[in-house]
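BUG: 3D viewer hangs when loading the predicted structure for this chain

Environment: internal workstation, default settings.
Expected: structure renders.
Actual: progress bar stalls at 90%.

Input used:
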Amino acid sequence: QVQLVESGGGSVQAGGSLTLTCRASRNTLITACMAWFRQAPGKEREGLARFLTYGAALYADSVKGRFTISGDNAKSTLYLQMNSLKPEDTAMYYCAVTSHCGSGSLNAGSFSYWGQGTQVTVSS
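Structure tokens produced before the viewer hung:
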């Protein structure tokens, strides 16, 4: 079992920035097993970012160039720096864990453990 706790959400104006944090309860969990997702009302859960094997990062096209994923394996903590936020970024943001560490999948079905989420609201 892994518990995930997200934090850092809030309300910002368009063009603003936020940094999300996800802390895992299992301190042996590496960040390559973790990813960020979001879900807006009435929409499917969308994979945003994760690390691949050897440390490269994979991003969804919708956030590429604006969001940056980082992590601290020693703390089993994942971060998501979000810049140039847009109203369409408004959603609940989730951290998730998969056993397919370092793979290129951002398919929600591949992830077994989920946090409760943190709300991000971007106003125009």
